[in-house]
Amino acid sequence: MFPINTWYVACTADEIDEKPLGRTICNHPIAFYRAQGGKVAAVEDFCPHRGAPLSLGQVCEGKLVCGYHGLEMGCDGKTVSMPGQRVGGFPAIRSFPVEERYGFVWVWPGEKDKADPALIPQMEWHNNPEWAYGGGLYHVKADYRLMVDNLMDLTHETYVHSTSIGQKEIDETPCKTTVNGDEVMTSRFMSDIPAPPFWKAALRAKGLADDVPVDRWQICRFTPPSHVIIEVGVAHAGHGGYDAPAEHKVYSKVIDFITPETDTSMHYFWGMARKFNPADKALTAQIREGQGKIFSEDLEMLERQQRNIGTHPGRKLLMLNIDAGGVQSRKVIDRVIAAEKGAAE
Amino acid sequence: MFPINTWYVACTADEIDEKPLGRTICNHPIAFYRAQGGKVAAVEDFCPHRGAPLSLGQVCEGKLVCGYHGLEMGCDGKTVSMPGQRVGGFPAIRSFPVEERYGFVWVWPGEKDKADPALIPQMEWHNNPEWAYGGGLYHVKADYRLMVDNLMDLTHETYVHSTSIGQKEIDETPCKTTVNGDEVMTSRFMSDIPAPPFWKAALRAKGLADDVPVDRWQICRFTPPSHVIIEVGVAHAGHGGYDAPAEHKVYSKVIDFITPETDTSMHYFWGMARKFNPADKALTAQIREGQGKIFSEDLEMLERQQRNIGTHPGRKLLMLNIDAGGVQSRKVIDRVIAAEKGAAE
Amino acid sequence: MFPINTWYVACTADEIDEKPLGRTICNHPIAFYRAQGGKVAAVEDFCPHRGAPLSLGQVCEGKLVCGYHGLEMGCDGKTVSMPGQRVGGFPAIRSFPVEERYGFVWVWPGEKDKADPALIPQMEWHNNPEWAYGGGLYHVKADYRLMVDNLMDLTHETYVHSTSIGQKEIDETPCKTTVNGDEVMTSRFMSDIPAPPFWKAALRAKGLADDVPVDRWQICRFTPPSHVIIEVGVAHAGHGGYDAPAEHKVYSKVIDFITPETDTSMHYFWGMARKFNPADKALTAQIREGQGKIFSEDLEMLERQQRNIGTHPGRKLLMLNIDAGGVQSRKVIDRVIAAEKGAAE
Prior knowledge:
Three copies of one chain form a homotrimer.
Chain A: E1 8-12, E2 21-25, E3 28-34, E4 40-44, E5 58-60, E6 63-65, E7 72-73, E8 79-81, E9 98-101, E10 104-107, E11 132-140, H1 144-151, H2 157-160, H3 168-172, E12 176-180, E13 183-193, H4 197-205, E14 214-223, E15 227-236, E16 249-262, E17 265-274, H5 281-311, H6 324-344
Antiparallel strand pairs in A: 1-10, 2-3, 3-4, 5-6, 6-7, 7-8, 9-10, 11-17, 12-13, 13-14, 14-15, 15-16, 16-17
Helix pairs in contact in A: 1-6
């Protein structure tokens, strides 16, 4: 139920250090580690000798050594050596294309020869002095598409996040959804409204008044397999809203990389890239903490929604105008999966 | 494996306050809440919009509002409104008849048009100045009928509750079981015996000697679907036992409302209505604590019994004379279920 | 997947005291208790009355009394008595042959009439003033044969136990495996090497220098159903190694009794019988603690290996020369099981 010939975020770069990292991606248990020169490698988390998980092993000078009997596994899934053994006839295990980019490790769970690093999406904010980034990771026991739905319909902010970013004006302002090839965009522009607590704090951090009316925008963009980037921000009212000059607004991108773990669980990498006060590390930490708290409010809802849907598999859900973002994103996902299957046959 | 056209206790009145309560009754996940005027309502715990559990939502001025996207659900399972939406075509969800009585909320999980509040059993002790009541709730991972068996055969007190209400004389005194329509009664009268610790304390609370021989009685009454009310007490010997004048005895009713959660788990509402020192609130609290401790002694036994039975589904259990209360109660249950099925066909 | 006409260690003698012990052996839930005179008895953990687990009951003067309604069960699985009941027609439950020996309780889960106590293996170290013994019990969620594999291939010490008993010389020294009837022996002799930390401490405990080269040996012996006894030790180099006189060496037996709980879990009784400083109880405690810590290092590996194998049931594992001990042991196990099946048909 997910595309496989595509790049997913597997972990943040700092999750792999001297020890390998074991993580299941799209139903594949994978051992990630840093091979020689620090380059990330990914192989099936299954030692061909006796089935031990390679992620319980060690990395010695860039070599992944099984922690049970010392088999040394190569980046390509072929055994390099084992004490006292000739390894030529050992069966190979799967290896997975991986790339490190933007502070994340990206993995390609499908056909290896189609893995083109150029397909990893561009992130303008990375290594850009005008931007600062902070984020985190949540494990959620729900189908990854429920998170896509969640992020492509921000009316839920009014209810789930009522004390931070929610406000009734979101609910009251229609959104507009468009599809452009594989990209789905759903946007909402609110004019002359009070800023909710999160944005008041952002305005203050930039030295702007927080008690005046603002224009607020939310522009959600889905791209396959399951990335959602959301332009968010507020500008003092009357200066052009989204197009206002930088000195009148605070502007960020919510970054969401959603990686299926299994059919009913996901790794959710969330973060915020902001285009104001980029050098203020305390502000980065403060926003990260606040965002982490806000985004944690969704988890119980999604996990319970998953259980409810699992209990009533035949029941059809509604597809309202506010759901258009999620509905269209799912159509793109279905099309990508169908295309993969067609190409395979 | 349970009657459905009947009233079950779903919760105590104070479990539903400003927030809805989500609880599964007879395999139905249900959201309970207080609608306008404080009247309790019960609807399927499934928002027709996207399947979120309504019990995670809010109640605003008697309206149940989904905590995900603000759909407002009516008591009748029909959507009342949703911001920016026309809801006329939204599919209805189930609603369940509910009544609040005796400090409990009663729910009818079966056919709505058969739900007659007059079928809720009478409780003489409620709002009666001669009586005081205290009780609690246990969740037990066992078929609700194992609790019926337990309460309709009090010889287990000798073993499970040996330090409080058990005594060898229970085991040594035969019980008598009679069936009168749908009511099963099993009774035991013990004469001229020492009082066990629980009853010694009750005698002292009433200012009666606790070191003299007593007559003791246990009269268990089962009524469908799964209520067991037990008259219990002791009187100083030689004053007429069960029929002794009030000044020579302490007398209570053990109240047991047993509600199936699933086929192998239950909500067990236990309590004691007592007809002595009714104004003594400290005594009520003390008895409630003592009873809670005693009744908790049954839980591991029942859960382990359930697991044993689940492991050996084909094995037949014995039906001894002491089991007659449970056996007859199960016959009534089976008859009620068969009648429901017959009526449905 | 395990022999049943054989003796398994069920528990240590001190695990059964005044209360019965409930433990599942080879998929049979069993209640163990001390009958009259302290002799251990074992019956199915299922009261024939209502299916309660007998292990939740009491032992009164050597009689096992069900904790629910007082049924008294005999050692032979026949009900002895029950208050107010004639028990002649009660169905019998299974009883299991049990023997107490070497501080362990041994149980025979198969055909009763084949249970010959003489088949319990001899343990020379028990009640022998030249030896001291200490050990413990781990519950492991893995097929018991994974532990046999583990113990019959000690190259894993280099990786799993690198800070205590592991050293690269184990990996570098070939082992030799021989089969003699049902006994499988795999041995390794290392000459003129440094002692690893565990053996340094043992040398010091005996007053021997720990900074001189030693000869080290490991002689693993598997016997059915799943016992592994390992002779281990070091001698100062140049004195004859394994055959060196006692004053130049420290010498122990690692004792492993591996009992299947279910098809994918086991009770692992580990210990060490040592033939030096036998009267030093502080040393016994210290070795027991050290060994417990070392052996706990295997648990995560085996449980994760079990999960990996369960995920890929069709995948064949390698059988290298170092695996010969485990491979041959499994062949013996398969042969014993096949013989049991043949005899049964």
